[in-house]
């Protein structure tokens, strides 16, 4: 609105050029994944691969030391799915309590939750690691997955905000019909907050898919490595011969992220722009 | 009636019980333990031995790498966060139009942030800045000598800052939502009064956005302070060159899980908490001076 006076062609040239600058690195990564490893850097200024090859994807997929990339993807998916189910359902359950029930100490616990939301994770890193190692959970996905079942403050906050927009008359009508609080949550609120559940699921997917610290600390066998750790392994064993494979698998690791984005674009944009604003 | 109140409390606590239990197990008890460890010498193998404030004093008196990591992190936060917010606001403004192409532009501009903190992005960034990477090729083409990004600590930190600016998307979306909430009549009215672009920007846009700037500033400050993955990947876990990318979280991680000095790492975590707390408090305290809330009927 403030830019109304801008001449349209100039606007589109400028915004379009900046857009190219923004996506250039991603296109560069994509194109490099089709170049022979020894040419990636000597031809880094030209985008078009010459010759155009697919073999990076084959060698990358086969992986190294008997560890195929498919294995990393399976491990990541396992963590993502179990974490997301736990994070979303528990957060919705907790959010209902905060948003709709009157009980002593509610305000205090809500404040505690907001403080937890802002607490740097590093503060609990060391004792959590010790706790999980005493439990014998090192080498399993439990340290990454189990805490998700106790609610994620960001999601709880998101859902509380969402539930507050649902008219209370719905609750009252259901209560008159003899529905209890659990029934109210399951049958009335849960179906109405599906957009918020979707937003939280997408975020949970992103965070767990990208997570490096958790797998780095708790997964110690290459057979249990996630995609992030698998990529890091490529980087560690870096030699001229596998640049291409590393780039190719970087692209593969981004496919699910982009897929979720394009499928659920509307939810993501709404989710981000409403969280913390209303 | 007492039993009804009891029943309400019972139901309420049943619903929030996962959070309460999780908070105690995964936050409160670990935080207390970390505070205790911070006063001990603890290597995981033998039991912690109490050394009082030694971790805290040696941090500031005899650990140059700690001071370096603090310096690097401060530079990263104080350069990166404002640049990122300014860029995010700039992009939000150019995308806040009614053109049909805007949907496409928005997707393209948001793309770098979607692929976000992943290892792939850090690997890509590392290679863009390689000795023969595209950034150096471009510098050469305009007659500037190649920069040795992995040899010069300042250049390496610059790499991290540009990466964080490039991923401005979430702040941009929040700004965009804020811009859409500014009533168009305000611009029209000032347009009638003959106000130009800059007058409109500084008199209307910026003041109306201040609550959102505050929100973005706090969120970005906290997350910038905890940045780990790019520094870890770009420097291959070392924080080099010459500790130029040794961000606070990375050094803390190395103290804990490379050198197994759990006490020292815990003390570092508490100092970080205090620093982040002070920064947040300062931002909140000064916000009264510059944040403009509509509901208060102007300043």
From TrEMBL, chain A:
Compartment(s): Cell membrane
UniProt keywords, alphabetically: Cell membrane, Membrane, Transmembrane, Transmembrane helix, Transport
Membrane-crossing residue ranges in chain numbering: 12-31, 79-101, 108-130, 136-163, 184-207, 243-264
Entries under Pfam families matching the protein: BPD_transp_1
ABC transmembrane type-1 domain span: 73-264
GO BP term, pick one: transmembrane transport
Cellular component GO terms held in the UniProt record: plasma membrane
Membrane recorded as keyword: yes
InterPro entries in alphabetical order: MetI-like, MetI-like_sf
Family matches, as PANTHER family: ABC TRANSPORTER PERMEASE PROTEIN MG189-RELATED-RELATED, ABC TRANSPORTER PERMEASE PROTEIN YESQ-RELATED
Protein name per its UniProtKB record: ABC transporter permease
Species, as recorded: Paenibacillus sp. BIHB 4019
TrEMBL record, chain B:
Keyword line: Cell membrane, Membrane, Transmembrane, Transmembrane helix, Transport
Membrane protein topology class: Multi-pass membrane protein
Annotated compartments: Cell membrane
One GO term of the biological process aspect: transmembrane transport
Transmembrane annotation, as ranges: 12-39, 74-95, 107-125, 155-179, 212-234, 270-291
One Pfam family, short name: BPD_transp_1
Domain ABC transmembrane type-1: 70-283
InterPro entries given in the database record: ABC_transporter_permease, MetI-like, MetI-like_sf
Cell membrane among keywords: yes
Keyword Transmembrane in record: yes
Superkingdom: Bacteria
GO cellular component term, pick one: plasma membrane
Gene3D superfamilies linked: MetI-like
Family stated for the protein in its record: Belongs to the binding-protein-dependent transport system permease family.
Protein name (Swiss-Prot/TrEMBL): ABC transporter permease
Source organism (scientific name): Paenibacillus sp. BIHB 4019
């Amino acid at each position: 609105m403030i830019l109304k006076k801008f001449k349209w062609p100039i606007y589109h040239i400028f915004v379009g050029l900046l857009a190219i600058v923004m996506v250039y690195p991603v296109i560069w990564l994509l194109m490099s994944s089709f170049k022979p490893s020894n040419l990636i850097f000597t031809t880094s200024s030209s985008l078009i691969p010459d010759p155009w090859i697919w073999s990076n994807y084959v060698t990358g997929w086969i992986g190294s030391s008997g560890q195929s990339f498919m294995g990393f993807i399976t491990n990541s998916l396992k963590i993502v799915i179990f974490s997301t189910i736990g994070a979303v359902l528990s957060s919705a359950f907790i959010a209902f309590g905060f948003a709709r029930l009157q009980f002593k100490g509610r305000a205090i616990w809500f404040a505690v939750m907001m403080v937890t939301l802002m607490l740097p994770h590093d503060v609990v890193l060391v004792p959590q690691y010790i706790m999980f190692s005493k439990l014998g959970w090192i080498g399993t996905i439990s340290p990454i997955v189990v805490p998700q079942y106790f609610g994620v403050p960001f999601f709880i906050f998101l859902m509380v905000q969402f539930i507050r927009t649902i008219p209370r008359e719905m609750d009252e009508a259901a209560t008159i019909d003899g529905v209890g609080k659990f029934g109210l949550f399951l049958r009335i609120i849960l179906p109405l907050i599906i957009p918020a559940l979707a937003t939280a699921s997408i975020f949970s997917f992103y965070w767990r898919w990208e997570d490096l610290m958790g797998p780095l600390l708790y997964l110690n066998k290459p057979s249990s490595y996630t995609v992030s750790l698998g990529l890091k392994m490529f980087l560690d064993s870096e030699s001229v011969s596998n640049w291409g494979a590393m780039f190719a698998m970087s692209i593969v690791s981004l496919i699910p992220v982009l897929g979720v984005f394009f499928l659920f674009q509307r939810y993501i944009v709404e989710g981000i722009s409403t969280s913390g604003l209303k | 009636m007492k039993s009804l109140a009891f029943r309400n409390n019972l139901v309420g606590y049943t619903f929030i019980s996962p959070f309460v239990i999780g908070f105690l197990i995964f936050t409160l008890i670990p935080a207390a333990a970390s505070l205790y460890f911070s006063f001990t010498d603890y290597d995981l193998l033998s039991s912690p031995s109490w050394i009082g404030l030694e971790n805290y004093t040696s941090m500031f008196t005899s650990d140059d790498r700690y001071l370096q990591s603090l310096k690097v992190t401060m530079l990263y936060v104080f350069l990166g966060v404002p640049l990122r917010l300014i860029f995010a606001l700039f992009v939000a403004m150019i995308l806040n139009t009614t053109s049909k192409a805007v949907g496409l532009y928005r997707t393209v501009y948001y793309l770098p942030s979607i692929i976000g903190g992943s290892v792939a992005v850090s690997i890509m960034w590392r290679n863009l800045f390689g000795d023969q990477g595209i950034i150096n090729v471009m510098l050469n083409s305009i007659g500037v000598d190649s920069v040795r990004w992995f040899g010069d600590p300042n250049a390496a930190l610059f790499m991290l800052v540009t990466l964080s600016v490039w991923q401005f998307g979430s702040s941009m979306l929040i700004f965009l939502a804020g811009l859409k909430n500014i009533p168009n009549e305000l611009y029209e009215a000032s347009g009638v009064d003959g106000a130009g672009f800059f007058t409109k920007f500084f008199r209307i846009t910026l003041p109306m956005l201040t609550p959102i700037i505050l929100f973005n500033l706090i969120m970005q400050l906290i997350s910038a302070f905890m940045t780990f993955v790019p520094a870890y990947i770009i420097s291959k876990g070392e924080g080099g060159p010459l500790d130029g990318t040794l961000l606070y979280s990375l050094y803390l991680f190395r103290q804990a899980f490379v050198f197994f000095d759990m006490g020292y790492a815990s003390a570092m975590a508490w100092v970080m908490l205090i620093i982040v707390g002070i920064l947040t408090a300062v931002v909140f305290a000064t916000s009264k001076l510059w944040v403009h809330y509509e509901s208060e009927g102007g300043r």
